[in-house]
Amino acid sequence: MSAGVLRLDAEHILRPVRLGDGAALARAYLANREHLAPWEPTRTEAFFSVTSQEQHAQQCVDDATAGRSVRFVIESDDGEIRGRMNINNIVRGAFWSADLGYWVDASRLHRGLASRAVAQIAEHSRAELRLHRLQAATLLHNVGSQRVLLGNGFERIGLAPKYLRIAGEWQDHLLFQRLLEEPLSSRREGP
Ligand SMILES: CC(C)(COP(=O)(O)OP(=O)(O)OC[C@H]1O[C@@H](n2cnc3c(N)ncnc32)[C@H](O)[C@@H]1OP(=O)(O)O)[C@@H](O)C(=O)NCCC(=O)NCCS
Question: Is the CB of 41 under 6 A from ligand 1?
């Protein structure tokens, strides 16, 4: 298996977004348009185009190179994209934290894919990125996502009113965090 590729089960891997993913990303977002609409920002028509998704893939590669974020896809063995796992907004200094975001394809829910992928992402964040902490935010009624987080050792740390604009409205979110237990002394100060 090549560098950065993590196996989730017999059929799925987790791998970083790479150049050339635009067409598969566009297919995945189109197939999951209704499934994701209540949980994500409102998307323009252009968002679903290959061109826009290829620009996004380029941005993912640039951000990963700069250490700003590390974004993965869940890929099935037929080469189709079946979900996303994003480590966004990596901040070092006194924080050493990042935001976690994810989704799983509507046809592959309830088989533990998100739970296993979050476990792999947390370990990658600890061991490779040397982060101290991951944080995540869910809508109050997103019970599935809350179960994924709680099952992965995240704890609820608060409620943020009108935290993110989701489905066209500023909506309240529950905030979660997981401390990654990596000793502070091995981390450099500074950016
Ligand atoms: C939330 C989401 C990622 C879960 O993916 P998944 O692969 O089906 O999750 P898992 O199979 O790992 O399920 C983990 C647990 O959550 C439970 N669960 C999953 N979806 C659920 C739902 N809609 N309602 C209640 N429980 C749910 C599972 O039963 C399982 O419970 P267990 O820990 O007791 O076994 C998926 O539903 C999704 O993509 N939703 C839309 C996008 C989204 O909400 N993203 C997160 C934004 S914060």
Answer: no
Q: Which CATH fold would you assign to the domain 6-186? A: Aminopeptidase (3.40.630)
What pLDDT, on a 0 to 100 scale, did the predictor assign at position 4? 81
Domain assignments of the chain as residue spans, ordered by start: 6-186
Pocket residue to mutate for ligand 1, from 76, 148, 172, most atoms within 8 A of Cβ: 148
- Let me know: does 127 contact 181? Beta carbons within 8 Å: no
The pLDDT tens digits of the residues spanning 32-71 come to 999 999 999 999 999 999 999 999 999 999 999 999 999 9
Phi, psi of 8 (to 5 degrees): -100, -40
147 lines ligand 1 (CB under 6 A): yes
DSSP 8-state class, residue 113: H
Give the position, in ligand 1's atom list, of the atom nearest the Cα of 83.
39
Strand order in the sheet with 155-166: 6-7, 12-16, 70-76, 81-91, 97-104, 133-139, 169-179, 155-166
Structure tokens at 72: 């993965």
pLDDT one-digit tens code per residue, 106-151: 999 999 999 999 999 999 999 999 999 999 999 999 999 999 999 9
Task: Look up residue 107 and give its amino acid.
Answer: S
